[in-house]
Amino acid sequence: MTETKTAMTQTLNRAEDILFKRYQALASDPARARAFESFKASGLPHRRMENWRWSDFKARLDTLFARSDSHTTAQADPFETLDGIICLRFKNGVLAELPDLPEGIDILQKRGGYAFANCEDIPLGALTAALVPATYLIEVTQSYAQPIKLVFEGEGAAAFARIDCVIRPDIELSLIETYRGGAKFNASLTSFNLNQGAKLSRYMIQPATQDQAHAITSEIHLDAQSRYEQTSLAFGGHLARIETRGTHHGPESEMLLKAAYLAGPGHHIDHTSHIRHGAPHCITRQRTKGAVLNKGTGVFQGKFHVPRVVGQKTDADMQHNALLLEEGAIVNAKPELEIYADDVACAHGNTCGALDEAALFYMRQRGIPDLQARAMLTEAFISEIFDTDGQAHSALATLREAAKAWLAQLSQ
Amino acid sequence: MLKLENLSIRVGEGETAKSILTGLSLDVPRGEVHAIMGPNGAGKSTLSYILTGKEGYEVDTGQALYEGEDLLALNPEQRAAKGLFLSFQYPIEIPGVPVMTFVRTAMNAQRKARGEEDISAPNFIKKAREIAAMLNISADMLKRPLNVGFSGGEKKRLEIFQMLMLEPKFIILDETDSGLDIDALKTVAAGINALRSPERGMLVITHYQRLLDYIVPDKVHILADGKIVKTGPARLAQDLEDKGYEGVLGLAS
Ligand SMILES: Nc1ncnc2c1ncn2[C@@H]1O[C@H](COP(=O)(O)OP(=O)(O)OP(=O)(O)O)[C@@H](O)[C@H]1O
Ligand SMILES: [Mg+2]
Q1: Which class for B28: exposed (0-12), middle (13-18), buried (19 or more C-beta within 10 A)?
Q2: What is the mean pLDDT of chain B?
Q3: ipTM of this model?
Q4: What are the residue boundaries of the structural domains of chain A, listed by start?
Q5: What percentage of chain A exceeds 70 in pLDDT?
Q6: Residue B102: its chain A contacts at CB < 8 A?
Q7: Which tens digit of pLDDT belongs to each residue from A384-411?
Q8: Which residues in A122-146 are b (16+ Cβ under 10 Å) and which e?
Q9: How far does the centroid of ligand 2 lie from the alpha carbon of residue B89, in Å?
Q10: Which atom of ligand 1 is closest in space to residue B42's alpha carbon?
Q11: CATH class of B2-252
Q12: Which listed residue, A39, A87, A249, B153, has the most CB atoms within 10 A of its CB?
């Protein structure tokens, strides 16, 4: 990091220049300043930095900002028809209107900077913390069966949004989230603190946005016996990264990360995660599945960190499976287990391959045209991520349908 | 209905090239059932793949005509839509696609290719129920992903289920009898016989006489070393059972 620090201050590229000017235009305060200093140390992350070699924000944002032809419109919201207890619509990081809040859900709009502890590890998180117009502090003290809806939308060169959410002991909540894009660079930073026994389920969708970049960063803190579940479907963009950083702070907490990605030509989608097992008897299950077309790129970087003393009895499993649907599709994967404790059950698996030719021939022999057979096999492969165990589940059904609609285009 | 003339097939290129069929000729007229028998590795399954359009084979000589049309010029799904069906020697598992979804998709794809309407959901379900009952296939099995975790015999019964659902015009059965228990062999044979008609042709690949006890063929061909070396009436199968290939073909083979 120190070496990039010195390299950085000398050369700002156009994208960094725009971001620097943004910062200078804002009223500074200590929290903002700290986050920005930390971002400034590395600048926009680039391919010579660890964890960023396959997603070069510095170079790619530069190209994107240089383009005048890119039409930056926000994408439709696939969750539109689903009901929530409340819907929070963020436009350039500002809540368009504060809805009437039901009992047990409090939202505080904190203008200006708000401390972000993880600055050094997450450069785009630091950038977001430095540039957001406001941070929304959400406290949940009552369980609801219906979800809270979050819709993120931006415009112009760059949009930054930030939420910091605390879920009180034994409270259960779900969120459905749409990352609609709309700005050239759309960044969000969400933090979730699950108190003892709390349960949170998130369902996220990032529609395809070829001319835009996304940095969707989440930070998760789990107290004892809490349970966090995240299911996402991402189609990528000019450059898109979904980064999840989780820490098991209390024993017997559980984390379930399920992600699907579908990348068409010109789309890049990166899933990066880092889970620290900082307490004994914690469970992490991570399942990521992707399918990529010619000129599309998928990236998976997963790390489980299990410290020597506190990580005992960790039970963690990481799986990434990708389908290269066409010649010219690219998938880069780096699953990592960093284990220092001796009494743990940790496993990981990673596969990248083409569709099974024998299965394709069998389907075609029965009369199913080649492209349709490919779409069916891919759907079957991906839809495991949206498995509902036979239960009705509208958010998962929406994700499944969105994946299906994308695949149906392939067989046209 | 199906006419193969001097068909020679090879796999691989250059050094690794291997001839599998070497001048095979065969004529199955409409309404007839022909059996093909032959030692392991003779090229029987390869023949079934060539006829249904699997990739990876080079045609060196000859042609295959199906109802007068050049079969080898069509892709697998076109052949299927024209009524060609293969019951696989080793049916493939299709994870994540339930049997009913699979068969309905196949049926409607074929209909679409022929310019016909989709089958209605109630009609499809009714037909599936009747055929499943006839073949002793449980409703539970039809909900499972196609062939995944099915026993060898269950997979074979499911091939016949698909055949009866799709009502093809020309049927190739590649060792459909292998893996079936005695009762299943009878029900499967009954299913096959149900489709026997003056409009259809069938090619039954088998190693044993027992299937041919139920499905009596009009002709029996012996395929060895990539070509038909002997053709005879139904009792040729019995001769083979009694004397073996060496006995029937003589030392010349
Ligand atoms: N792709 C291939 N590459 C190389 N050799 C092949 C290939 N496919 C088939 N063969 C060979 O061609 C020969 C014929 O195989 P085929 O499966 O058609 O035999 P078969 O008559 O069906 O045998 P069985 O009775 O055991 O089912 C075998 O020797 C086989 O190993
Ligand atoms: Mg065979």
Answers
A1: buried
A2: 94
A3: 0.97
A4: 2-354, 355-412
A5: 97
A6: 363, 366
A7: 999 988 788 999 999 999 999 999 988 7
A8: bbbbbbbbbbbbbbbbbbbeeebee
A9: 6
A10: 21
A11: alpha beta
A12: A39
Q: What gap in Å lies between CA A32 and CA A334, rounded to an integer?
A: 33
Residue A283 has pLDDT above 80, yes or no: yes
Residue A255 in contact with residue A222, Cβ under 8 Å? Answer: yes
- Given a cut of 70, whether residue B252 has pLDDT beyond it is no
How far apart are the CA of B36 and the centre of ligand 1, in A?
A: 15
DSSP string, A21-77: HHHHHSPP-HHHHHHHHHHHHH-S--TTSTT-TT--HHHHHHHHHH-SS----PPP-
pLDDT: which is higher, A409 or A253: A253
Which ligand has its closest atom nearest to the C-alpha of B37?
A: 1
Cβ neighbours of B81 in A, within 8 Å: 367
Across A264-278, b (16+ Cβ under 10 Å) vs e yields: bebbbbbbbbbbbbb
Contact A359 B55 (CB under 8 A): no
* Tens digit of each residue's pLDDT (9 = 90 or more) over A304-321: 999 999 999 999 999 999
Instruction: Inspect the interface and report whether the beta carbons of A367 and B80 lie closer than 8 Å.
Output: yes
Facing residue for A361 by CB, picked from B76, B95, B103: B76
Q: State phi, psi for A37 to the nearest 5 degrees.
A: -55, -45
Q: What interhelical angle do B182-195 and B121-134 show, nearest 10? A: 130
d(CA A344, CA A316): 8
Q: What type of residue sits at position B19?
A: S
